[in-house]
């Protein structure tokens, strides 16, 4: 199949065999795994994954791609295709419907919506065993960035508080049709076990991290003015004059656990 890529869906179809094989090897599917692929496209990853797992679910928004993919998959294994925006799919409910505790998620994510998809997966991380995504390399760099890095930010903190992030390898533009203007990268994301997750209020963590990085050049004292005062910041053993990019994910958790005084 050679479908016409649609700009509106951010489609870049992977076609180079050696990178397909490397991604499938990284995922290492096993018979019985409940694999869910986001955006299967022409099935470059779907079919080799299905050949091993034998049963799969794919989430595809582009109706034009579904009939051909369904027909080709029938000769390989059992593929259920959910026609939906992935942000509307409840992975926790999907795991229950498949009779498993956790899903294995994979996909070549559209660049324009990659961060929302990542945050959506984090929201359902207790129902996910692992994730293997191909993304714009710059996004993978941000996901894995350490404090002090120029690309360390909200995405870095929120992902690292919930998951272990492991960049695997880079994929050049020529491996896709049409070639994107940037390099891509494959990343493995593994949700942390319950015992290693923080116990702060998730909404409070989200609000503090979002406010702290909203204007990177501001000190915490100014950036968090609407969320907490200098005294509260100091009580978390954090310097109010520091900037957000210097704080570790654990620092943000301590800030979130400072009691909120009544207005």
UniProtKB/TrEMBL annotation:
What reaction(s) does this enzyme catalyze?
adenosine(1518)/adenosine(1519) in 16S rRNA + 4 S-adenosyl-L-methionine = N(6)-dimethyladenosine(1518)/N(6)-dimethyladenosine(1519) in 16S rRNA + 4 S-adenosyl-L-homocysteine + 4 H(+)
Predominant localisation class: cytoplasm
Positions annotated to bind S-adenosyl-L-methionine: 12, 14, 39, 60, 85, 108
Q: Name one GO cellular component term.
A: cytosol
Matches recorded under Gene3D superfamilies: Ribosomal RNA adenine dimethylase-like, domain 2 (1.10.8.100), Vaccinia Virus protein VP39 (3.40.50.150)
Q: Where in the cell is it found?
A: Cytoplasm
Q: Please give the SUPFAM superfamilies that the UniProt record associates with this protein.
A: S-adenosyl-L-methionine-dependent methyltransferases
According to its UniProt record, the EC number is: 2.1.1.182
Annotated keywords:
Cytoplasm, Methyltransferase, RNA-binding, rRNA processing, S-adenosyl-L-methionine, Transferase
List each copy of the Ribosomal RNA adenine methylase transferase N-terminal domain by range: 19-193
Q: Which InterPro entries match?
A: KsgA/Erm (IPR001737), rRNA_Ade_diMease-like_C (IPR023165), rRNA_Ade_Mease_Trfase_CS (IPR020596), rRNA_Ade_methylase_Trfase_N (IPR020598), rRNA_adenine_dimethylase (IPR011530), SAM-dependent_MTases_sf (IPR029063)
Recorded GO molecular functions are: 16S rRNA (adenine(1518)-N(6)/adenine(1519)-N(6))-dimethyltransferase activity; RNA binding
Q: Residue span of the signal peptide, if any?
A: none
Q: Which Pfam families does the record cross-reference, listed alphabetically? A: RrnaAD (PF00398)
Family per UniProt?
Answer: Belongs to the class I-like SAM-binding methyltransferase superfamily. rRNA adenine N(6)-methyltransferase family. RsmA subfamily.
Q: What does this protein do?
A: Specifically dimethylates two adjacent adenosines (A1518 and A1519) in the loop of a conserved hairpin near the 3'-end of 16S rRNA in the 30S particle. May play a critical role in biogenesis of 30S subunits.
NCBIfam families assigned: ksgA
What name does this protein carry?
Ribosomal RNA small subunit methyltransferase A
Originating species: Dyella soli
